[in-house]
Amino acid sequence: MNFTRWSARLPGTQRRAAVARAEHPVTTTDRRSEGSGPGSVPAARVEQLTDEPPPVPAVDELPAREVLDRVPALVALVHGPDHRLAYVNDAYTAAFGVRLIGEPAAEALPELHELGLMPLLDQAQRSGKPRTLKSRKAPDGRSYTFTCTPVPENHGESAVLVFATDVTDHAEAAERLRASERRQRETAVTLQRSLLPQELEEPDDLRIAATYHPGGTEAAVGGDWYDVITLGGGRTALVIGDVMGRGVRAAAVMGQLRTAVRAYARLDLPPHEILQLLDGLAMEIDANQIATCVYAIHDPNEGRLVYASAGHLPILVRDESGTVLRADEPTGPPLGTGGWMHASGSIPLGPGSTAVLYTDGLVERRNEDLDEGIAALERALAGATGTPQVVCDRLVRSAGVTADHDDDVAVLVLQHPARTGPDGELFRNAALELLGGVEAAPRARAFASGVLTSWRFPAELHDLGVLAASELVANSLQHGIPPMRLRLRRTDRRLIIEVTDGDDHLPRRRRAEPADESGRGIAIVATIATSWGSRRTPGGGKAVWCEFVLPKPTD
Questions:
Q1: Residue 469, helix vs strand vs coil
Q2: Phi and psi, residue 239, nearest 5°
Q3: Contact between residue 314 and residue 270 where contact means Cβ atoms under 8 Å apart
Q4: Pick from 145, 185, 328, 460: most CB atoms within 10 A?
Q5: Per-residue pLDDT tens for 261-301?
Q6: What pTM did the predictor assign?
């Protein structure tokens, strides 16, 4: 780089060059003689090489007002305790109009008052340090960043220089970015909510409520979800999960997993087998995307909640006495990790109990241990009474979840009511152990007839119930092995008939040929009942069931 050429423009260089010229003057004769010899450079060329550039004043010699008048930024100078206006430059006048010199800033510069700069002037004057106010929209429609810099004066009063830089383009770009992020978040939230159940299924034996709170406006929506699935035979599946990550992608993966859970639930498999299937599916959807999940099944006849967990937080259950239990084990790794055999566990859920399934947004806080959050939730659940929706709201409120919460929150609350009095008459159970032999079928028919008569069912429903019980028992006697059991259950909405035995071969409906002497039992049950199904039982064997929807009482 040619520093000689640049040095002529540095402050003070011009003065040193002038001194050099005074000490060694070059005359016109000298210039002629320099260019008169053979091969010499023409005089015009010599002048071009030796002439000094026009002198440039040093920075400290430039008049400050002339500089401030020419800068494109807005400049104003105020002085004294009431910030009287001493100066505004042309750019300021062009932006806000002519201003009266000598007037207090609150009157002479009303735009600064509207933007809240008066306290900033005071702070800069008192502290002797610059103060900045970023990207404020002024009355002229432009956005400025204001810097208030204290300037000491000779008269004992300190002044403040107000310097405003036009950042309208940056502010508009930032606003467009924020608007784009808002649209993306709204899209993700809409997708998330559309993939969650719009209405929860209502099992006969449980009362259920759920809530979902997306993260605040600064946080992208996550992949939290929950679901309630009636399995038939009075049993209910309850699911809650959380896909790691945020945005539309996490919501889309959540939707795929939720759809898969509903499809797998129709197989009526144990919870750990459902999670095993989900684990493989999660790896196929996205090997880099993992999710936590709890899948639980409630059977009112068992009085327990059987569950399996894939890296999810423990279920909490408050019993009728108010004691809170935590279902800690077993817990496997999250879905999508592969190579793990999940296992099922159980926790009591008798009449009068309340269970809570939740995602980590409810209990996890920065700089706090997760166990402390779960313990706080246990204390809140111990004192939370009322309907499931009331319990939901109280738990969310006790956790301090607000509109600007930094994570998604999903909560699922279920209650197994303790029914007494007239309500208890609508929920009845009856069971008969089948010992086998030729007398088992007649005994089962007589038992079913007596129970249905005592439950005061209409004659048509009584006869259909007895026929269904007879066919299920006959199927079990022919194809099953002991122990065998016939169980009848009524709720306020349906009659459930179930037969269990020790053989794990599940029956299937098939079309019997005219010459066949068997194979019509399941077909008859499927024809007369509202629904039917079968499943393998945890201890080995199977259960075959059918349901009849009860007629609604007439006023």
A1: helix
A2: -135, 140
A3: no
A4: 185
A5: 999 999 999 999 999 999 999 988 887 788 999 999 999 88
A6: 0.69
